[in-house]
Structure to design on (713 residues):
């Protein structure tokens, strides 16, 4: 099979336009002689209606915007490829999964859910993770998230969920935040959301980088092989750089300092050749095991613990090229869980079933035409022929007089493909049922996996969940909503509820309020059953924590280190750390009281990357204070103090050598540093190899969260 990796790039080239060395023209190709002045009746006279050049320019400008996505409006995208490392022909006939080494071009878009297009990257939110595979059999879209479960079990609640989390309708506040009454009002009446609430209150919701998140297909899907045998699967993608987060206080500060933090990080990494990479894997469940577990495979609020079904890695996803044009590619790309290839099919998950309607429908209003598949980024590399015709902005010029099937005038073309010729056929599932507006009882356990998730977390991660809940519910103005939430949290873990209650100055209610009192229909009216809690066959799973996550490695590739300098800095110290970092694929940035260059101790000069005004600790992974004659003078500098305080508070590695130590010892937190804190590295010797090695090793642990014990009591 031909290697497809570049086929999408070749396809896009047809539409690329480069204005280098070209004349400025109108949209009709007319060369423009003066683009600076409109046509007027006299130099000081009114503009003339006949100025078609002005009218064309302004009209186009007036219509530049399209509606943003109703959810996932804020996103960043990149091109790349998927390479098969472990073909699975025994499970699926999908062509792009058959041959080891086959590379299929992809475009991935990673997004937040609630915020508008211009909102901050660091909102506490789920991250959407959508991948379009341009396969030889047509486009296949894997439209997932960075969390393996969802808030609701049935698509009919999706508009309610989104209305609740979006800015409140009367005053359009708050932007890109769930910490407000309507969200928690809805959630407190939806016990089925409790598992997802644990995820969204965990640090998974504030990733350090889009490159350091897992991805999940969430629903159970089907794979079908050439013999028409089927298995159920869950898709997982696991980041090469491990799964890491920032601190919540840090996330909020990043939002102010650089609202494009994740977008920029992804862009810069790709530009620097640090290509983000994930392993793609599947959990495979034989159809015979459909009813084997204490949860229903069709329930999207449940995951399959990896202890029960391990993830088999089948390939790798690499993002290696930034888009040429954000609007043309990242904004106009249109995903749909219903874009399938032979060998992959849906399950009856009622959330997935509803999605199958929503995605095409939303593209019609967002992109404005059923011809959105013709937009270059959406165009399949497999040939497209059918009898769909016309519509707004049709690009294709279909020849001939036939636009129907069957036909004899066109020789029966385009003709249907047999299954053996790659024709798609849905899995031949037997369904024999009553028509019912309701839910299966097997969906009723709303707390079992929420408990599993909470119990799997390390103490530090549990404390972050408590703090996140205190923050979110602390912003809720209606006391009854807070109390209702405490009642639900108590059903996950009593201590969790009590700790949150302490922060809110409230009491955990003795018996939780029934959602049914608030318009949620009782059993039989809508099919809602009361929540139950089922005993879990797995009590704790390391795959669910970030800190103990088996995907973690101690690489520091692409990490950024702030080097705090003043006049008279030791050039040797700066060079020593910079070259050591570079060897590990990381980078040091000189930060000083002013930009330009800085005099060194031997009267040399080094370039400054940022001033304290344009940089901030939250934009870096670690801080180093090199030796310097005048470094202690920065003790008086408020911005430097805040820089170091934040680095300490956010549990980052801080290192200092020579006189650099003096500045570290002059901080307000110096007296709190414990000797056991391996994230603080001080050495008398200047520019030593040992220091650099120790500093880099310490960075490999990412954060020293245990430091928080003496920060917050
Ligand atoms: Fe959705 C966009 C992921 C449930 C309706 N969704 C969207 C995107 C992602 C997801 C990643 C952004 C795609 C892009 O970058 O363009 N959605 C999910 C996941 C879900 C989920 C993982 C549950 C497991 N979604 C869901 C439901 C519905 C929708 C239940 C409706 C019934 N989603 C949409 C949408 C969006 C969308 C309105 C908005 C923009 C778009 O589709 O293209 O159709």
């Amino acid at each position: 099979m031909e290697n497809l990796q570049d086929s999408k790039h070749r396809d896009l080239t047809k539409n690329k336009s480069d204005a280098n060395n070209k004349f400025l023209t109108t949209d009709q190709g007319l060369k423009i002689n003066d683009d600076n002045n409109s046509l007027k009746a006299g130099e000081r006279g009114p503009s003339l209606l006949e100025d078609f050049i002005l009218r064309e320019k302004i009209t186009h400008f007036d219509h530049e915007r399209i509606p943003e996505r109703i959810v996932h409006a804020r996103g960043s995208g990149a091109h790349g490829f998927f390479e098969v490392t472990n073909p699975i022909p025994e499970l699926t006939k999908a062509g792009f999964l058959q041959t080891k080494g086959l590379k299929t071009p992809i475009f991935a878009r990673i997004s937040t859910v609630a915020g508008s297009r211009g909102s901050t990257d660091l909102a506490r939110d789920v991250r959407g993770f959508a991948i379009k595979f341009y396969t030889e059999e047509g486009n296949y879209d894997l439209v997932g998230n960075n969390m393996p479960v969802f808030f609701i079990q049935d698509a009919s609640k999706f508009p309610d969920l989104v209305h609740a989390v979006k800015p409140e309708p009367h005053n359009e506040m708050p932007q890109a935040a769930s910490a407000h009454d309507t969200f928690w009002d809805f959630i407190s009446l939806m016990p089925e959301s409790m598992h997802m609430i644990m995820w969204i209150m965990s640090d998974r919701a504030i990733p350090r980088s889009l490159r350091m998140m897992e991805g999940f297909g969430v629903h159970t899907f089907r794979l079908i092989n050439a013999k028409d045998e089927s298995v159920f699967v869950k898709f997982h993608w696991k980041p090469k750089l491990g799964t890491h987060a920032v601190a919540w206080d840090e996330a909020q500060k990043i939002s102010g300092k650089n609202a494009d933090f994740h977008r920029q990080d992804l862009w810069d990494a790709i530009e620097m050749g640090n290509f983000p990479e994930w392993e793609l894997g599947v959990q495979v469940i034989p159809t015979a095991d459909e009813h084997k577990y204490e949860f229903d495979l069709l329930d999207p609020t449940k995951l399959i613990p990896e202890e029960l079904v391990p993830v088999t890695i089948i390939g790798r996803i690499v993002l290696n090229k930034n888009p040429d044009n954000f609007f043309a590619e990242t904004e106009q790309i249109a995903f749909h869980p219903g874009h399938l290839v032979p060998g992959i099919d849906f399950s009856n998950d009622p959330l997935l079933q509803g999605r199958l309607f929503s995605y095409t429908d939303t593209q019609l209003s967002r992109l404005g035409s059923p011809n959105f598949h013709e937009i270059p980024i959406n165009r399949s590399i497999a040939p497209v022929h059918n009898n769909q015709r016309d519509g707004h902005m049709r690009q294709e010029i279909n020849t001939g007089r036939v636009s129907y099937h069957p036909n004899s005038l066109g020789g029966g073309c385009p003709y249907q493909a047999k299954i053996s010729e790659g024709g798609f056929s849905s899995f031949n599932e037997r369904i024999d049922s009553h028509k019912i507006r309701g839910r299966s009882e097997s969906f009723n356990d709303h707390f079992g996996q929420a408990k599993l998730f909470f119990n799997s977390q390390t103490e530090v991660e549990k404390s972050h969940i408590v703090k996140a809940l205190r923050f979110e519910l602390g912003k809720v103005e209606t006391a009854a909503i807070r109390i209702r939430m405490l009642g639900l949290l108590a059903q996950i873990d009593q201590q969790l509820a009590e700790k949150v209650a302490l922060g809110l100055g409230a009491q955990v209610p003795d018996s939780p309020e029934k959602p049914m009192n608030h318009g949620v229909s009782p059993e039989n009216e809508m099919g809602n059953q009361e929540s139950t809690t089922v005993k879990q066959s797995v009590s704790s799973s390391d795959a669910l924590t970030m800190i103990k996550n088996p995907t973690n490695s101690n690489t520091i590739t692409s990490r950024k280190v702030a080097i705090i300098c003043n006049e008279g800095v030791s050039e040797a110290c700066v060079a020593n750390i910079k070259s050591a970092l570079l060897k590990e694929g990381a980078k040091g940035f000189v930060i000083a009281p002013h930009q330009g260059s800085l005099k060194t101790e031997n009267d040399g000069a080094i370039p400054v990357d940022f001033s304290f005004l344009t940089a901030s600790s939250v934009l870096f992974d670690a801080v180093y204070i090199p030796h310097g004659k005048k470094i202690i003078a920065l003790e008086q500098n408020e911005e430097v103090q805040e820089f170091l305080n934040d680095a300490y508070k956010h549990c980052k590695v801080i290192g200092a050598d020579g006189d650099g130590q003096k500045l570290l010892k002059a901080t307000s937190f110096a007296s709190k540093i414990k000797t056991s804190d391996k994230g603080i590295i001080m050495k008398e010797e200047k520019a030593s190899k040992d220091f650099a090695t120790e500093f880099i090793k310490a960075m490999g642990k990412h954060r020293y969260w245990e430091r928080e014990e003496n920060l917050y009591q």
Notes: The pocket of HDD is lined by residues 69-72, 75, 109, 111, 128-130, 143-145, 150, 155, 158, 218-219, 300, 333-335, 351, 354-355, 358-359, 362 (CB under 6 Å).
